[in-house]
Specification:
Length: 93
Amino acid sequence: MAAQTSDPPTPGGPNIVRFPAQTPGTKRPASTSPDPEEPLGTGALIGIGIFLVALVVAGVWLMNTLRDIGKMQDCAMQGRRNCAPIETPARER
């Protein structure tokens, strides 16, 4: 088994290594199964859009809920007693 000797790279020179699969003149094999769809088809884009809309709706709901809880806590921290609105049915006379 003979050891291959190679010249050390020159300082400041390019240090390029070419592998056999990437040598000039070789061709890549053609794809055996052509893909009829694009990477992101219409169905995938619709799914992403629906997900983003649901994410925005959930974010708005969460922000409103946290705001209401914050108002309730601010009221309670000020020592008030009637912080939570109590809904009672109207009396008929």
